[in-house]
Amino acid sequence: MNVVTDLQSRLLSRWCDLPRSPIASSIARRWVSAMLASWDLSLSPADEATIAELTSELVTNAVQHAVTPAWGSSDIRINVRAGDVTIWVAVCDHDPTLPTRRAPDFLAESGRGLFLVDAQADQWGAVPHENGKYVWFSLECLGGIDATNAKEDSPCPPSSFPTTSSVRGRIA
Q: 123, 166 in Cβ contact below 8 A?
């Protein structure tokens, strides 16, 4: 695992490789929760639950929908970052096809993942990269020193998550 800490901006970041398996979302939820706890962040139980749910949705989408490459690893990577007031989570897979949000069928057993991400994340997006794509979300949920007076310089993901798509804020 890589750990990047920038004390100037209080940006904490970690990566984890996940198996392309039905248990990947469970591993991801527990790993993200453990990373956030290890950074001693003051998250509300509601924000912790939202982060866990949205992490699970993105990882489940990668497991179920990403096409496995003919070469190299089929693993999924996840990145969690904490800034002064924002948590970002990105899920990376090898399929370059960007996800599309569709109208949910509330009687179906699945198909509501991006609908939930759209409803609960402050921002989210999907970004193609040379080996596939990143699908990410962010929540502004930390009580940083300046959180009451100003937002971080950029509400978008850090520069390694170039933004091509960003959607409306979460519903409280």
A: yes
